[in-house]
Amino acid sequence: MSWVIAWILGLGTLALLGLLMIHLVLALVLIIPTWRICTRAGFSGALSLFHLVPVIGWLIVMGVLAFTPWPNGEASDRR
Amino acid sequence: MGVEIAALMSFFGLTSAFAIIAAVLGAWMAWRILEKAGFPGWMGLAATLLTLTGIASIVPLVLLWVFAFMRWPRDALARLEAGGAAAYAPARPGAPALGAPPRALADRRGWWLSGRLPSGGNVSLNIAAGAASWVVTGAQPAKPGELAVPDPSVGQPHARLLSAGGRLGLEDLGSGETYIDGARLLPEHGPRDISAARTIRLGNVDLALSRA
User: Fold this and answer.
1) A75 vs B64: CB contact, 8 Å cut-off?
2) Are residues B83 and B115 in the same domain?
3) B130/A contact by beta carbon, under 8 A
4) Domain check: are B124 and B79 in the same one?
Protein backbone atom coordinates (compact mmCIF):
# COMPACT_ATOMS: atom_id res chain seq x y z
CA MET A 1 0.00 0.00 0.00
CA SER A 2 2.87 2.33 0.80
CA TRP A 3 3.88 2.63 -2.86
CA VAL A 4 0.40 4.04 -3.57
CA ILE A 5 0.88 6.74 -0.94
CA ALA A 6 4.36 7.50 -2.27
CA TRP A 7 2.94 7.70 -5.78
CA ILE A 8 0.18 10.11 -4.69
CA LEU A 9 2.59 12.28 -2.73
CA GLY A 10 4.99 12.39 -5.66
CA LEU A 11 2.22 13.31 -8.04
CA GLY A 12 1.00 15.97 -5.63
CA THR A 13 4.44 17.52 -5.37
CA LEU A 14 4.75 17.50 -9.13
CA ALA A 15 1.34 19.09 -9.51
CA LEU A 16 2.19 21.78 -6.95
CA LEU A 17 5.48 22.50 -8.68
CA GLY A 18 3.68 22.72 -12.00
CA LEU A 19 1.11 25.10 -10.54
CA LEU A 20 3.90 27.24 -9.08
CA MET A 21 5.69 27.40 -12.42
CA ILE A 22 2.48 28.33 -14.25
CA HIS A 23 1.75 30.97 -11.63
CA LEU A 24 5.24 32.46 -11.97
CA VAL A 25 5.04 32.53 -15.76
CA LEU A 26 1.57 34.13 -15.68
CA ALA A 27 2.73 36.64 -13.09
CA LEU A 28 5.72 37.53 -15.28
CA VAL A 29 3.42 38.05 -18.27
CA LEU A 30 1.43 40.47 -16.10
CA ILE A 31 4.44 42.08 -14.40
CA ILE A 32 6.23 43.20 -17.58
CA PRO A 33 3.47 45.55 -18.85
CA THR A 34 2.44 46.57 -15.35
CA TRP A 35 6.04 47.54 -14.53
CA ARG A 36 5.97 49.90 -17.48
CA ILE A 37 2.57 51.33 -16.51
CA CYS A 38 3.75 51.93 -12.93
CA THR A 39 6.94 53.69 -13.98
CA ARG A 40 5.05 55.79 -16.54
CA ALA A 41 2.61 56.79 -13.82
CA GLY A 42 5.56 57.73 -11.62
CA PHE A 43 5.51 54.87 -9.15
CA SER A 44 8.31 52.40 -8.55
CA GLY A 45 8.18 49.54 -11.00
CA ALA A 46 8.45 47.17 -8.06
CA LEU A 47 4.79 47.94 -7.36
CA SER A 48 3.98 45.53 -10.17
CA LEU A 49 5.52 42.69 -8.14
CA PHE A 50 2.18 42.52 -6.29
CA HIS A 51 1.12 40.32 -9.20
CA LEU A 52 3.08 37.58 -7.45
CA VAL A 53 0.39 37.55 -4.76
CA PRO A 54 -2.13 34.92 -5.79
CA VAL A 55 -5.80 35.76 -6.44
CA ILE A 56 -5.86 39.36 -5.13
CA GLY A 57 -2.50 40.72 -6.32
CA TRP A 58 -3.95 42.37 -9.43
CA LEU A 59 -6.60 44.04 -7.29
CA ILE A 60 -3.87 45.66 -5.15
CA VAL A 61 -1.92 46.96 -8.14
CA MET A 62 -5.03 48.28 -9.86
CA GLY A 63 -6.25 49.82 -6.62
CA VAL A 64 -3.02 51.75 -6.12
CA LEU A 65 -2.99 52.91 -9.75
CA ALA A 66 -6.66 53.89 -9.66
CA PHE A 67 -6.98 55.61 -6.31
CA THR A 68 -3.59 57.27 -5.72
CA PRO A 69 -2.57 60.48 -7.46
CA TRP A 70 0.04 59.72 -10.08
CA PRO A 71 3.39 61.38 -9.25
CA ASN A 72 4.07 62.00 -12.95
CA GLY A 73 0.78 63.81 -13.40
CA GLU A 74 -2.60 62.78 -14.68
CA ALA A 75 -4.56 63.89 -17.71
CA SER A 76 -7.17 65.57 -15.51
CA ASP A 77 -4.77 68.08 -13.92
CA ARG A 78 -3.42 69.20 -17.29
CA ARG A 79 -6.76 70.30 -18.74
CA MET B 1 -25.10 13.99 1.58
CA GLY B 2 -26.92 17.23 2.15
CA VAL B 3 -23.95 18.73 4.02
CA GLU B 4 -21.56 18.11 1.16
CA ILE B 5 -23.93 19.64 -1.35
CA ALA B 6 -24.45 22.65 0.90
CA ALA B 7 -20.68 23.05 1.32
CA LEU B 8 -20.17 22.78 -2.43
CA MET B 9 -22.95 25.28 -3.12
CA SER B 10 -21.59 27.79 -0.60
CA PHE B 11 -18.11 27.41 -2.10
CA PHE B 12 -19.52 28.18 -5.54
CA GLY B 13 -21.50 31.01 -4.02
CA LEU B 14 -18.39 32.51 -2.43
CA THR B 15 -16.42 32.10 -5.63
CA SER B 16 -19.07 33.73 -7.78
CA ALA B 17 -19.54 36.51 -5.22
CA PHE B 18 -15.79 37.18 -5.38
CA ALA B 19 -15.95 37.09 -9.18
CA ILE B 20 -18.80 39.60 -9.29
CA ILE B 21 -17.17 41.96 -6.77
CA ALA B 22 -13.83 41.65 -8.57
CA ALA B 23 -15.46 42.40 -11.92
CA VAL B 24 -17.24 45.50 -10.63
CA LEU B 25 -14.14 46.72 -8.78
CA GLY B 26 -11.97 45.97 -11.80
CA ALA B 27 -14.29 47.90 -14.13
CA TRP B 28 -14.31 50.88 -11.78
CA MET B 29 -10.53 50.88 -11.35
CA ALA B 30 -9.95 50.40 -15.09
CA TRP B 31 -12.21 53.41 -15.70
CA ARG B 32 -10.17 55.54 -13.31
CA ILE B 33 -6.77 54.37 -14.60
CA LEU B 34 -7.71 55.06 -18.23
CA GLU B 35 -9.02 58.50 -17.29
CA LYS B 36 -5.74 59.28 -15.56
CA ALA B 37 -3.84 58.25 -18.70
CA GLY B 38 -6.04 60.62 -20.71
CA PHE B 39 -8.43 58.16 -22.36
CA PRO B 40 -12.20 58.33 -21.96
CA GLY B 41 -13.21 56.25 -18.96
CA TRP B 42 -15.77 54.15 -20.85
CA MET B 43 -12.89 52.43 -22.62
CA GLY B 44 -11.97 50.82 -19.32
CA LEU B 45 -15.55 49.65 -18.85
CA ALA B 46 -15.62 48.31 -22.40
CA ALA B 47 -12.38 46.44 -21.82
CA THR B 48 -13.78 44.86 -18.67
CA LEU B 49 -17.04 43.89 -20.42
CA LEU B 50 -15.05 42.41 -23.30
CA THR B 51 -13.13 40.38 -20.76
CA LEU B 52 -16.34 39.19 -19.09
CA THR B 53 -17.76 37.85 -22.35
CA GLY B 54 -15.10 35.20 -22.01
CA ILE B 55 -14.16 35.11 -25.69
CA ALA B 56 -10.76 34.13 -24.49
CA SER B 57 -8.92 34.70 -21.25
CA ILE B 58 -6.12 36.15 -23.35
CA VAL B 59 -8.17 39.32 -23.96
CA PRO B 60 -7.30 41.22 -20.74
CA LEU B 61 -3.68 40.23 -21.18
CA VAL B 62 -3.52 41.63 -24.70
CA LEU B 63 -5.30 44.80 -23.58
CA LEU B 64 -2.87 45.21 -20.69
CA TRP B 65 0.15 44.91 -22.99
CA VAL B 66 -1.37 47.30 -25.53
CA PHE B 67 -2.17 49.82 -22.79
CA ALA B 68 1.32 49.59 -21.31
CA PHE B 69 3.16 50.31 -24.54
CA MET B 70 0.78 52.59 -26.45
CA ARG B 71 1.00 56.37 -26.48
CA TRP B 72 -1.06 57.97 -23.73
CA PRO B 73 -2.90 61.26 -24.37
CA ARG B 74 -1.53 62.45 -21.02
CA ASP B 75 2.02 62.38 -22.42
CA ALA B 76 0.96 64.38 -25.47
CA LEU B 77 -0.70 66.94 -23.20
CA ALA B 78 2.47 67.14 -21.12
CA ARG B 79 4.53 67.70 -24.26
CA LEU B 80 2.15 70.42 -25.46
CA GLU B 81 2.47 72.06 -22.10
CA ALA B 82 6.28 71.86 -22.21
CA GLY B 83 6.37 73.92 -25.38
CA GLY B 84 5.21 74.02 -29.00
CA ALA B 85 8.52 72.90 -30.49
CA ALA B 86 8.63 69.79 -28.36
CA ALA B 87 5.12 68.89 -29.49
CA TYR B 88 6.35 68.49 -33.07
CA ALA B 89 9.39 66.46 -32.18
CA PRO B 90 8.90 62.83 -33.14
CA ALA B 91 8.30 60.79 -30.03
CA ARG B 92 11.13 58.36 -29.59
CA PRO B 93 9.89 55.20 -27.94
CA GLY B 94 11.62 54.65 -24.66
CA ALA B 95 12.79 58.24 -24.32
CA PRO B 96 11.79 59.48 -20.90
CA ALA B 97 9.39 62.37 -21.07
CA LEU B 98 10.62 65.39 -19.17
CA GLY B 99 8.40 65.32 -16.13
CA ALA B 100 7.61 68.07 -13.74
CA PRO B 101 10.39 68.85 -11.27
CA PRO B 102 9.87 67.30 -7.87
CA ARG B 103 7.88 69.52 -5.62
CA ALA B 104 10.41 71.21 -3.35
CA LEU B 105 9.79 71.07 0.34
CA ALA B 106 9.30 74.47 1.86
CA ASP B 107 12.41 75.49 3.76
CA ARG B 108 11.13 76.08 7.27
CA ARG B 109 14.53 76.66 8.82
CA GLY B 110 15.44 79.96 10.40
CA TRP B 111 18.57 82.03 9.86
CA TRP B 112 21.80 82.76 11.69
CA LEU B 113 23.51 86.12 11.45
CA SER B 114 26.91 85.71 12.97
CA GLY B 115 30.10 87.70 12.98
CA ARG B 116 32.94 89.22 14.98
CA LEU B 117 32.66 92.57 16.66
CA PRO B 118 35.50 95.07 16.17
CA SER B 119 35.81 95.14 19.96
CA GLY B 120 36.70 91.45 19.92
CA GLY B 121 33.50 89.71 20.92
CA ASN B 122 31.29 87.47 18.86
CA VAL B 123 27.72 88.19 17.91
CA SER B 124 25.26 85.53 16.83
CA LEU B 125 21.64 86.32 16.07
CA ASN B 126 19.10 83.57 15.55
CA ILE B 127 16.10 84.55 13.45
CA ALA B 128 13.31 82.01 13.54
CA ALA B 129 11.31 81.46 10.36
CA GLY B 130 7.77 82.73 10.43
CA ALA B 131 6.01 86.03 10.10
CA ALA B 132 7.79 88.38 12.46
CA SER B 133 9.94 91.47 12.51
CA TRP B 134 12.92 92.42 14.66
CA VAL B 135 14.77 95.64 15.19
CA VAL B 136 18.55 95.43 15.13
CA THR B 137 20.08 97.88 17.54
CA GLY B 138 23.47 98.78 18.92
CA ALA B 139 22.08 99.10 22.41
CA GLN B 140 23.26 96.28 24.63
CA PRO B 141 20.29 95.34 26.81
CA ALA B 142 17.94 94.34 23.99
CA LYS B 143 14.26 94.84 24.65
CA PRO B 144 11.70 92.26 23.43
CA GLY B 145 11.62 92.30 19.63
CA GLU B 146 15.17 93.66 19.46
CA LEU B 147 18.39 92.01 18.42
CA ALA B 148 21.55 93.53 19.84
CA VAL B 149 24.76 94.05 17.87
CA PRO B 150 26.72 95.87 20.56
CA ASP B 151 29.03 98.18 18.66
CA PRO B 152 29.26 102.00 18.60
CA SER B 153 28.98 102.01 14.78
CA VAL B 154 25.59 100.32 14.89
CA GLY B 155 22.67 102.72 15.22
CA GLN B 156 20.04 102.59 17.91
CA PRO B 157 17.97 101.33 16.17
CA HIS B 158 19.90 100.48 13.02
CA ALA B 159 17.82 98.18 10.82
CA ARG B 160 14.76 96.01 10.74
CA LEU B 161 14.72 92.29 9.92
CA LEU B 162 11.49 90.84 8.53
CA SER B 163 10.80 87.15 8.05
CA ALA B 164 7.75 85.90 6.19
CA GLY B 165 6.93 82.96 3.96
CA GLY B 166 10.37 81.40 4.27
CA ARG B 167 12.10 84.61 3.21
CA LEU B 168 14.13 87.16 5.12
CA GLY B 169 14.02 90.89 4.51
CA LEU B 170 16.23 93.74 5.68
CA GLU B 171 15.32 97.41 5.94
CA ASP B 172 17.70 100.21 6.84
CA LEU B 173 16.37 102.63 9.43
CA GLY B 174 18.74 105.47 8.55
CA SER B 175 21.01 105.72 11.57
CA GLY B 176 24.09 104.10 10.09
CA GLU B 177 25.49 102.34 7.05
CA THR B 178 24.06 99.03 5.91
CA TYR B 179 25.42 96.84 3.11
CA ILE B 180 24.03 93.68 1.50
CA ASP B 181 26.89 91.70 -0.10
CA GLY B 182 28.85 94.94 -0.34
CA ALA B 183 26.03 97.01 -1.87
CA ARG B 184 24.75 99.93 0.12
CA LEU B 185 21.19 99.68 1.41
CA LEU B 186 19.53 103.04 1.88
CA PRO B 187 16.38 103.75 3.91
CA GLU B 188 14.54 104.77 0.74
CA HIS B 189 15.12 101.29 -0.72
CA GLY B 190 12.66 99.88 1.79
CA PRO B 191 12.83 96.24 2.84
CA ARG B 192 14.98 94.06 0.57
CA ASP B 193 14.93 90.28 0.31
CA ILE B 194 18.23 88.98 1.71
CA SER B 195 17.29 85.27 1.68
CA ALA B 196 20.04 84.60 -0.85
CA ALA B 197 22.58 87.07 0.57
CA ARG B 198 25.89 85.97 2.07
CA THR B 199 27.06 88.87 4.15
CA ILE B 200 25.39 91.81 5.82
CA ARG B 201 27.37 94.79 7.06
CA LEU B 202 25.92 96.95 9.82
CA GLY B 203 28.19 99.91 10.56
CA ASN B 204 31.62 98.29 11.01
CA VAL B 205 30.27 94.82 11.83
CA ASP B 206 30.33 92.12 9.18
CA LEU B 207 27.73 89.43 9.66
CA ALA B 208 27.54 86.17 7.71
CA LEU B 209 24.06 84.93 6.87
CA SER B 210 23.40 81.21 7.05
CA ARG B 211 20.45 78.89 7.50
CA ALA B 212 19.86 77.52 10.97
Assistant:
1) no
2) no
3) no
4) no
